[in-house]
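Batch manifest, entry 17 of 40.
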Amino acid sequence: MTTRTETMRNHWWWRPGWSMGRRFYTWHLTFEGQADVHRLADEYRSALAPLGDALTPIPDKWLHLTMQGIGFVGEVKEQDVHAVVDAARARLAAVPAFDLQIGPEVLDPEAVLLHVRPDGPVRAVRDAIRAAIGEALGEVPEKAEGFTPHVSVAYSAGDGPAAPIAEVLAGLSLAPAQARISGAELIVLHRDNLMYEWESFAMAPLG
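Output type: structure tokens
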């Protein structure tokens, strides 16, 4: 693990548009039933536990790979969301399911992130979802550029030096996790409890 991060900042500041009670339509890859991903996340949770409340560890249930947002509930018509789902299902049926390796980690100023590889298939899924959104809504929120596929295992819960976290990570040698990606999930996301939590809206299987 290498890092140039010297200071951590609290991940849980309210980003523009977000507030208590708001909900957001977004596409993620999720990891329900992916035992090896849960194994690796648990190893990181155990290793980072001595750091106390400096980090917010992510439970297995809420592990995810962020893909592509649509918009806030109440600002996007539900019928339009259903149209996105229909378009995404048609496009993703032509994208083959694939295997993903998750890890090793990198320390970001707001999180402990795990690299994923190969990233090409992940980008192909995102491109298909963006095309579906454009087809259904006429425009696509969020930039296509700057997307770096990753899975977070802990978020920074405050401002402070990165060195204690980096020291723990430097002493680790954890086997990467293997995951099978067979679909993308449209979720209704919130962050009311200092965690990204959601309800599922729809699944779109890969081919």
